[in-house]
Amino acid sequence: MTAQRPNLLLITSDQQHWNTLGASNSELQTPHLDRLAREGTTFTRAYCPNPTCTPTRASMITGQYPSQHGAWSLGTKLPESVRTLGDELQTAGYRTALVGKAHFQPLKGTEEFPSLESYPIMQDLDFWSAFDGPFYGFETVRLARNHADEAHVGQHYALWMERRGCENWRDYYKPPTGNNDRQKHRWLIPEEFHYDNWIAAETVDLLERYHDAEEPFFLWSSFFDPHPPYLAPDPWHRMYDPRELTIPSVVPGEHDANPPHFALTQQQRPDFSPWRESGQGIHGFSSHLHDRRDLAENVAVYYGMISLMDKYIGVILDKLDKLGLAENTLVLFTSDHGHLFGQHGLTAKGPFHYEDLVRVPFIARWPKRIPAAAKSDALQSLVDLAPTFLSAVGAAAPRTMTGVNQLPLWCGTASSARGHVLVENRHEPTTVHLKTYIDERYKLTVYYERDYGELFDLQEDPGEVRNLWSVAEHANLKSELTRKLLFAEMGKEPLWMPRISGA
Questions:
Q1: Which of 133, 205, 230, 394 has the highest local Cβ count within 10 Å?
Q2: Which of 326, 319, 49, 318 is nearest to 207 (CA)?
Q3: SS3 of 171, please?
């Protein structure tokens, strides 16, 4: 392999809070990700385009916002016709593969919108034994769908467990009709059959193949953790003592000036019926009241899941070194969105665009190109991954990609690549439809056809506890940021071809 054709290795977690790395949080142990940070640059202000899985994951491979590529919410599908990063890289002569979670399609398919990631296909092991791609620009895929012991287990992961002698793998998962009550925090599955091990093993196998064939590659290792349910095998579920962890909590009165659904989350039996016009449930629209001790125990396991994942990320990074590939491989680690574990009295995720949920961990390493042991607070968006990766291999991004090329910034030859980021979030038809504009200092969130909104000064109020939306002295600021949001929306319109004629 030559220096002119670098390899691309994308490693992602799922629903990981931006500040859950040992390099920045002394309560966690992530030695391998800390090593990656020492050898690369950590970007402290990276954002997802949508704080849920499908929309953001689709944005990562299309370079488009959810409102552009079509997979605008959970339960929607990324069209197979869309042009992806993998398609562009194959045209440039790259091998492409995805190992782990895809979630480009919903759990339920229809005749009009069939889904390869839905029941009953995901558990048809005869199908998966014969299918390994192509899939959204990845010529090779090794897929699974479950988080911890969810009943969605199947696909290539189940085949791998059986090949390794775990024929009773169904014993470790919820039955389709309910919970597996034998498992709370401690997942009974042996670590050797855990999906982190599977992802690392499949990734290592592909690395060896590409190395032996001397072929440049784009490989996405897509981990499932630390997305709930909070479960980890021995000894990881008890690695952290809940009594020694910092557990965030709501600030009294902080939701008084927020949109009404915020305060409802702090009620025992909230009435969210005005937001359920579509007949579909909305993540986060429920009571978020919790027992602090239970929450601390959940956070302890959440941290254990991160440390377990870190171990197997280390396996992948070590194999890069052993094969002599590290020097010529751009490695990017990030997550699809963040996580709430007590901040603002909230848990998990929902239409709450706090930094805890829309910011993500983000580390880029490329020896001799990206500065080592560096930190940057320049704004990043996961929409930028596709055009930036294409720039790294010397390929032009198609005009349909609306993300920006961050490579000069990553390599230290530019101070910034964008002046703002946008975060989208909507449910059909108009139950919840919000967009957030974030610049170096301020954050503005507007709701479709609603008078309420959010305005935070991230410099003076980094904890986002004082909503300035209705404060009279900030009316001009709100107006100016609303204008900037409008300009940002206009600026991201894709133009699939240049104008070539006057008429």
A1: 230
A2: 319
A3: helix
Beta bridge partners of 135: 138
What is the rounded distance in angstroms from the CA atom of residue 43 to the CA atom of residue 26?
18
Q: What are phi and psi of 179, to 5 degrees?
A: -85, 155
Domain boundaries, the chain: 7-418
Is residue 160 a contact partner of residue 143, using CB atoms and an 8 Å limit?
no
The span from the first CA to the last CA of the chain, in angstroms, equals 47
Q: Calculate the alpha carbon distances from 241 to 24, 190, 217, 299, 464 in Å.
A: 19, 21, 41, 10, 28
For 349-373, give one letter per residue: b (16+ CB within 10 A) or e: bbbbbbbbbbbbbbbbbbeebbbee
Structure token pair of residue 498: 């240049």
Element (H, E) at 438: strand 433-438
- Please state, in angstroms and as integers, the Cα–Cα distance from residue 262 to each residue in 38, 166, 346, 484, following that order: 39, 45, 9, 25
Here the tokens at position 449 are: 């056809």
Please give the biggest Cα pair distance in the chain: 70
pLDDT in tens, 338-388: 999 999 999 999 999 999 999 999 999 999 999 999 999 999 999 999 999
Per CATH, domain 7-418 is 3.40.720.10: yes
Classify strands 374-376 and 41-43 as parallel, antiparallel or unpaired.
parallel
User: How far from 142 is each of 168, 206, 412, CA to CA, in Å?
Assistant: 21, 10, 35
Neighbour-count burial of 494, counting CB atoms closer than 10 A to its CB (0-12 exposed, 13-18 middle, 19+ buried): middle
